[in-house]
Design brief:
Belongs to the UPF0276 family. InterPro entries: MbnB/TglH/ChrH, Xyl_isomerase-like_sf. By secondary structure, the protein is an alpha/beta fold. It has helices at 17-23, 43-52, 74-87, 116-133, 155-166, 174-184, 188-193, 225-238, 254-271, and strands spanning 8-11, 29-33, 57-60, 92-95, 98-101, 104-110, 138-140, 169-173, 200-205, 209-210, 215-216, 242-245. The protein has nine helices and twelve strands. The chain binds fe (ii) ion.
């Protein structure tokens, strides 16, 4: 049984700050985007700490660029650690990707080449980040639209090797796997079956934009049926995993997102036992 199951949560977004404090919605936890709060004071910080008093939180970063060949940004890590110390989240995460080179930010989460060299590179950097932060981290699979001729293994083999060797955990983004499976023509079930289940600590669920020949990970739609189906498969394979919805554009009301989170709860209740679905917060990672 998982000792790390936080239950069902949402990504905390500015649009909902007021409503969350006012309504105290019936959800188990929030994920916050670290970079939005790596500042001194201000209104967002006020809301963050006020909401933290009522809910467990996890921190999710988007700009660690852990796969880049640029040196690790120690100033960024210092500010991340400060926020971590303030918030005392259940865990922190970032993406298995690179976001820039030679100081130029691509403003995109770019996939890695799936090579031995890239595995060693990422493992060494994750270990240094974990040493600095004093705890294990979660790394998330990104959606992708390109691949590299150099890649000598599948994405899930790459993810397995990196996480096993670095001894970190996985933030398994179900929508990203659906998007990448469509774009690269692989079976998403192979991805699920090829992932080291004992390392999966969190799920992301989101919507996307389907252009027919390709799919873009836009986070601006409701979660579509194929992603819900994949979520059920992921639950069957991984068991109870902390689940949340990411919505970053065309953001609906808090009530609408809570209704969408209820769908996740129903699918999990149909797939897992009641005991498996009891949240466990203590020593989450
Ligand atoms: Fe995600």
């Amino acid at each position: 049984m998982s000792q790390h199951f936080l239950g069902f949560g949402l990504g905390l977004r500015t649009d909902h700050f007021h409503d969350v404090l006012e309504q105290k919605p019936d959800l188990d936890w929030f994920e916050v985007i670290s970079e939005n709060f790596m500042v001194d004071g201000g209104k967002p910080k006020y809301y963050l700490h006020s909401i933290r008093e009522h809910y467990p939180m996890v921190m999710h970063g988007v700009s660690m660029s852990l796969g880049s060949t640029d040196p690790l940004d120690m100033d960024y890590l210092k500010r991340l650690k400060q926020l971590h110390d303030e918030l005392q989240p259940e865990w922190f995460s970032d993406h298995l990707c690179w976001t820039g080179l030679e100081g130029v930010n691509a403003h995109d989460l770019l996939p890695m080449p799936y090579t031995e060299e890239a595995i060693s590179h990422c493992v060494e950097r994750i270990q240094r980040i974990q040493d600095y932060m004093g705890r294990q981290m979660l790394i998330e699979n990104v959606s992708s639209y390109i691949s590299y001729a150099e890649s000598g293994m599948t994405e899930w083999e790459f993810l397995r090797e990196v996480t096993d060797r670095a001894d970190c955990h996985i933030l398994f983004d179900v929508n990203n796997i659906y998007v990448s499976a469509r774009n690269h023509d692989f079976d998403p079930l192979d991805y699920i079956k090829g992932t080291n289940a004992e390392r999966v600590r969190q799920f992301h669920l989101a919507g996307h934009t389907d252009y027919g020949d390709y799919v873009i990970d836009t986070h601006d739609h409701d979660i579509p049926d194929p992603v819900w189906k994949l979520y059920k498969e992921a639950l069957l394979h991984f068991g109870p995993v902390s689940t949340m919805i990411e919505r970053d554009d065309n953001i609906p009301s808090l009530e609408a997102l809570m209704a969408e989170l209820d769908i996740a709860r129903r699918i999990a209740a149909d797939t897992l036992t009641e005991d498996q679905l009891t949240p466990r917060y203590k020593d989450a990672v």
